[in-house]
Design goal:
Helix content: 25-40%
Order of helices and strands: HHEHHEHEHEH
Shape: globular
Distance between the termini: 23 Å
CATH architecture: 3-Layer(aba) Sandwich
Number of strands: 4
Strand order of the largest sheet: 1-2-4-3
Length: about 170
Amino acid sequence: MLEAIRSRRSVRRFTDQAVSRADVAAILEAGRWAPSGLNNQPWRFLVLRPGDGRAERLAGCTKYRHVVQRARALIVLLLEREAMYSEIKDRQAAGACMQNMLLAAHGLGLGGVWLGEIINQEFQALEALGLPAQRFELAAVLALGHPAAKGRSSRKRLSELVLEEF
């Protein structure tokens, strides 16, 4: 598990190869098992494939349009307002859900990237998806596909992040 956490990278370029229904289901299953406060599981998923007009409309709601357009599957991560009990805890749960899905995608040999910037255009994005803002909060979008290029990243040294010696 620790190796998977260290080796996972955000992938923004995908091949044209389709992502299988079984792989999408496995990724959703990983998200479903994320922790949530009071086990309320406030997340809801909308899966979009290439050719779905909603995906193209959604692409217009983010500066990462090219990533959305090249993805072979998109998982729109939503919070159902009625299922929420604490905005902070439920948004943290959505982050845990997204991390589970990213790790699952990595484990399946897929690439993915967490598109969070899109929440700055939440109402426009929900409208593009045909979803009511009074029922759903947009948490993020996961763009998926077979990697066309490896992702890269670096991290600060642990000593820069830990406040006290342990």
